[in-house]
Structure formats: structure tokens, C-alpha cells
Design brief:
Strand order of the largest sheet: 2-3-4-5-6-7-8-11
Oligomer: single chain
Strand content: 25-35%
Shape: globular
Largest sheet: 8 strands, parallel, barrel
């Protein structure tokens, strides 16, 4: 009997929360590691770049072998992996930058002449960094300053990018099926708008390229709110519901599940405009925009795999510096630091075990058992719901078996929702039968 009951229990990960990610340095200016701060902030995933052109300035003889003498792997990535593991943080790598030998002597933003060369490199990188699971393919390829060839409102960039992504997908999955390949990686605007780029992102046979998650940088043009109407073909943070439906329409028929969004970069700068961005707000408003952006992500539920803030620290002060950080350049906290601190994260969510199904008599009698193992101190709320209706709430401040009893209950589908301080909500469906 015990074995049967145990078989019905499942350990539920956060079901509707996005990974809390960030871009930022590995050390402060004085050499101290930034990872204790990332851990304190509740960061789930640190994002960083891996530049193909820097690693392989000459053509390797054995390109899928990370030990080939032509490869000069950066110490920074190895350091990041070690520090991330020590602090319970994932690493996501964005691979871009073509060496001159692979694109006919052009600059690094030009696509390789043969997508297989890029695929061979990412295969070697995946072997070298075998603990990394999240792989972003290029960054903002719908912008002329990031990816070439490119023409305004023209499909050439998307049609060039699609085979690159598809080849990388095949290579990364061949190394490890658990690798998550993030493609698209579009920006809110661009020389080719995200909607155009996504629609034109086709292989020669007319199919969309393979990917696991669709990457997008939803930099805001206005205060984040899903109730806003889209602005033409721009897709900022307030348009993510629309953009997700557009992506689903493109990939429908080619995959069995909707495409999750990986929102690699989100940010609003404070104090002044910069060489990078015109839009800016006050420091208190920066914190409000941060909260509102993550509120949008929460409303979208499991459609969003993760969102990353760009970045931890402001640039040193000049009239054109970008004050985009959670910290000033002299490491003083801004209001945005506390706002990001308060964003729920997976790492602080409790582990939850609950039966997938139960009898009416169980809920009416001893109650449905919800076993909690807490990862963060404070009061945790266990809710039993049917649809939008809240039926029962229990609260606890310690790991425990919480029983949810109902005297009046009908057969059907119920949900257990566990809310915790700074932890992503955990949601599990339970089928109640007669």
C-alpha cells in the first residue's frame, strides 16, 4: 500500500515561474567574486557570451574536438562554471562572432559561409562545457550592427540565420539531448522587425529551423503592461502575449507543444540617455519598470522559460554612460537592486510532493497530503483551488506534511498552489475521483 501511495507522489518543480536570470561580470573591480551577490539576489541563471572568433582565430583541423590546438578557450567561462556550481546557479552561453576564415575574410558579424563550421564549433563547445545546458544562438540577428547580411525589411538575414540555427541545434543535441537550444534571439525593434524576422526565418525547404525555446530581448518602449496594444511590428515587453501567439502560429504543425520564450535581456536605464539607448527614467521609476516587467512574465506563466536583467553594474559616469545596472559604478545599490531582489526565483521555491489523484473520501476525511521541503525561511501558503476559486488555505513556516481537508467536495480537477517568500510559485494539478 505504501509503495502504491509513493508511486502516486510527484516532486513538483515551479510550474509557472520563469528563471530569474542576469547578465553581469564575474568579479568586481577589486577582484572580489560577484557570485555571492548573485546568490543573495536569488539569481537562477547567469548569462554570458562565448565568441567563436576569439576562440578559433585559425581553422581547427579537428573542429568538433575541443582539444584541437587551434582552440583557445576563455578562462572566464571555466571560472564562471566553477563559481556558478559553487553557488547553485546555472550558466547560459550565447554563441556568436564568426572568425574571418569562416566567412571569406569579413568582419565577425557576418554569418559563416558554411553553417556546418558553426555547428562544429558549438559541438566542441558543448563537449568542453558539458555542464552547460542553455545555448543561445547569436544575439539580435534582426539588427544590422549584430548580424550580416542584412537589409531593412528584407528576408535575407532571417533566411541566412535559419540554417545556422538548425545546424547548431543538430550539433548540440548530438552531444547531449538535454541541451536546450535557444533560437531567434530577436530584439524589440531592429532593421527587420521581430514579427518579420520570425515569419521569414525559414529553411530552404520552407520549414522553420529547429529550436527548443525562442529567444527575444523585449526592451521596453513604454511602461510594461500586457493591456497595451502592439505598436506596428515592434514587440516589446508589453507585446509578449501577442508575440507568443505569432510564434505558435509559425511553429504549429512542426512541434507538439507551444514554444516557450527565453527573454535573454530586459532593462530600462536610469538618470540619462546613453550611447546605447535613448529611453531612460528616474531611479525609482527604473525599479517600478523592473517590477512591472517581471509582473508581465508572471502573468504569462509557463509560456516564459526565463528573463534576464541587463546588467548588474552601471557604466562609469560620463555624459553618455548607460546607467542600466542594479548598482552604481561605485557599487551603491539603486532602488532597482531591491526590486530585483524581490523577484521570485526557482532556487527559493519549496519542493512539493502531492498525489496526482485522490478519492473524494480522502479530502473529506484525513485530507490531501502536501509534503513541503522549504528552501527559504518565512511563511509559506498552501492553497487548494478549483479553477479560480480558492477553497482552502494552510500556512506553515517549516518543512512539514500539510493536509488539505474539504467537507464539501466534488469530483473533478483541483490545483495545489504553494506561495513562498521570494520563491517561484509551485503549482500541481490533482484529479479528485469518486
Amino acid at each position: 500500500m505504501i509503495a502504491i501511495v509513493f508511486a502516486l507522489l510527484v516532486c513538483a518543480a515551479p510550474a509557472s515561474a520563469a528563471e530569474k536570470a542576469i547578465w553581469g561580470p564575474l568579479t568586481f573591480a577589486d577582484g572580489r567574486s560577484t557570485f555571492p551577490m548573485y546568490e543573495r539576489l536569488g539569481v537562477d541563471t547567469l548569462e554570458m557570451q562565448l565568441n567563436w572568433d576569439a576562440v578559433a582565430s585559425t581553422r581547427p583541423a579537428d573542429p568538433t574536438n575541443p582539444a584541437d590546438p587551434a582552440y583557445h578557450w576563455p578562462d572566464a567561462v571555466s571560472t564562471a562554471i566553477t563559481e556558478a556550481q559553487r553557488h547553485g546557479i546555472r550558466l547560459a552561453l550565447m554563441v556568436n562572432g564568426t572568425p574571418a576564415w569562416a566567412n571569406g575574410g569579413k568582419s565577425r558579424i557576418w554569418a559563416p559561409s558554411n553553417p556546418a563550421d558553426f555547428a562544429n564549433f558549438v559541438a566542441a563547445a558543448a563537449k568542453r562545457y558539458s555542464n552547460v545546458r542553455r545555448w543561445m544562438i547569436w544575439g539580435e540577428p534582426n539588427m544590422a550592427v549584430r548580424f550580416q547580411p542584412q537589409k531593412t525589411d528584407d528576408p535575407i538575414s532571417a533566411r541566412t540565420y535559419a540554417p545556422l540555427l538548425d545546424a547548431a541545434y543538430g550539433a548540440l543535441k548530438a552531444v547531449n539531448r538535454r541541451n536546450i537550444v535557444i533560437g531567434g534571439m530577436t530584439w524589440s525593434g531592429g532593421d527587420v522587425r521581430p514579427t518579420q524576422f520570425t515569419r521569414w526565418m525559414k529553411l530552404p525547404n520552407g520549414r522553420p529551423p529547429r529550436l527548443d525555446w525562442f529567444g527575444h530581448n523585449p526592451y521596453p518602449f513604454r511602461y510594461p503592461d500586457l493591456r497595451r496594444s502592439p505598436q506596428a511590428d515592434f514587440r516589446d515587453i508589453s507585446d509578449l502575449d501577442t508575440f507568443s501567439r505569432e510564434i505558435d502560429a509559425i511553429f504549429r504543425g512542426y512541434r507538439s507543444t507551444p514554444v516557450k520564450l527565453w527573454l535573454s535581456e530586459y532593462m530600462i536605464q536610469s538618470d540619462q540617455r546613453s550611447l546605447a539607448f535613448d529611453t531612460f527614467v528616474s531611479r525609482p521609476q527604473q525599479a517600478a519598470w523592473l517590477r512591472a516587467g517581471y509582473k508581465v512574465v508572471t502573468r504569462l506563466g509557463d509560456r516564459v522559460a526565463g528573463m534576464g536583467w541587463f546588467t548588474l553594474i552601471d557604466q562609469p559616469p560620463t555624459p553618455t554612460s548607460a546607467y542600466w545596472g542594479l548598482l552604481t559604478s561605485d557599487l551603491k545599490t539603486k532602488p532597482a537592486w531591491q526590486a530585483f531582489f524581490d523577484v521570485p526565483s526557482e532556487r527559493h521555491a519549496p519542493r512539493v510532493r502531492v498525489a496526482r489523484s485522490a478519492h473524494l473520501s480522502t479530502l473529506r476525511g484525513r485530507g490531501l497530503g502536501v509534503r513541503l521541503r522549504l528552501h527559504y525561511p518565512g511563511r509559506h501558503s498552501v492553497q487548494l483551488r478549483r479553477g479560480s476559486r480558492l477553497l482552502r488555505v494552510r500556512r506553515t513556516t517549516r518543512s512539514a506534511l500539510v493536509r488539505m481537508r474539504l467537507h464539501s467536495v466534488r469530483a473533478g480537477t483541483y490545483t495545489i498552489r504553494v506561495l513562498s517568500p521570494r520563491g517561484a510559485p509551485v503549482i500541481k494539478t490533482v484529479r479528485v475521483r469518486r
